[in-house]
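Per your request, structure below.
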């Protein structure tokens, strides 16, 4: 994964509303949520949700699929796994401790 892509994803998740939207979709599982139900759960205006979803879609963290007249939003778990993997891939490589020891200190 490239640093530029990771930084865009982290920037997108750095907004409290987008982070809430993303976490809600992650919790929803692979079935995702219709936009209307997502809006109800988050409690924000449709235009605001649309804006934040657009940013998450552009970074690859969220996908949308149309089923008849309904837009279904889903967390892109492959992208999430890649992002988390990038963040932890080199944990403690320059230290004398193991990853488990580093986690215990934190």
């Amino acid at each position: 994964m490239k640093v530029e892509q990771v930084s865009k994803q982290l920037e997108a998740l750095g907004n409290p509303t987008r982070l809430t939207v993303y976490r809600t979709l992650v919790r929803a599982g692979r079935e995702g949520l219709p936009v209307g139900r997502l809006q109800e759960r988050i409690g924000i205006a449709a235009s605001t949700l649309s804006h934040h979803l657009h940013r998450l879609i552009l970074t690859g963290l969220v996908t949308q699929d149309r089923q008849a007249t309904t837009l279904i939003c889903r967390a892109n778990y492959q992208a999430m796994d890649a992002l988390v993997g990038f963040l932890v891939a080199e944990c403690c490589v320059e230290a004398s401790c193991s990853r488990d020891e580093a986690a215990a200190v934190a």
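Residues 13 and 19 are 5 Å apart (CA to CA).

Regards,
D.
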